[in-house]
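note to self — DONT lose this again. spent like an hour looking for the file last time. sequence + predicted structure for the chain T wanted, 292 res
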Amino acid sequence: MNRQGLGLGAAAFAALVALAAPAHAQSSASDHAVRMAARAPVGDIQQRFGHVLVDEGRNLTLDPGASVDETREVLLRRAAIFESVQEFASAEASLTQAVQMSPSSAAAGLARGYYYMRRGRFTAALGDFLVAAQIEPGNARLRYSAGRAQSALGDYAGAARHYGEAIRLAPGEAGYYLARAEARIHLDQPEGARADYDHAIAMKPSRPVDRYFAFLGRGYSLLMQADYAGAIADFDNAIALDSGSLQALMWRGYAREKAGQIDLALDDYERAVALHPKNRLAWANLQRLRSN
């Protein structure tokens, strides 16, 4: 079975947003919607959404005497409330008003960019992240965010460049290495991916999910390079962190097959079927190996 025969894409290595058709960066909110959102009184918000969605002691109306930063904060909080109740046009209107205020704010662009990401509008998100990066060129998170948008659009070379810039600005952030490694897997660059996974693992990420993806990803990069013993060891570590991982079980089973450990490979495929009985690939691999 070749790498493509595994049928499990490299996107399993990280929590990528689902791919969707690019959208225009232009906001769809009308000027009227923006004005109406700006006028929405806190009482109306409470009546429609309940007091639980409004922080006690805080006013969601726009005070004409407030500073730009204070007004922008209210708009961003209001947008979060609208989004939480799926009033997306109103949420976008508040975000757009926050973005359009002068002086420009990288934080507002970042907030609207991630709103666009959640709505599957990745081209629009990328535009906001890049503009925000011009406002704060030393902000590594903005470069990382641009990379996430590029990845969602399928431009992994562009994503790797943005992740590389984020790493240059914040070399101690393991998540940036994991993200670039994922892009390099998509670009069929297992050596570069392994180097990034090595960096991330050496940093000993505190979050179990980061350690899981680091071992899973490095194991896959080693599998691509036919280092089956190394791949098995990394998949062991991934499974120790997530005993029900379909990807780790399937890939360890394949690595064990290639290493001549047929009985152990059967164990992995049987376990994958037991945990994921509806997965056709797990059944196909189990039946194929049993028939040999």
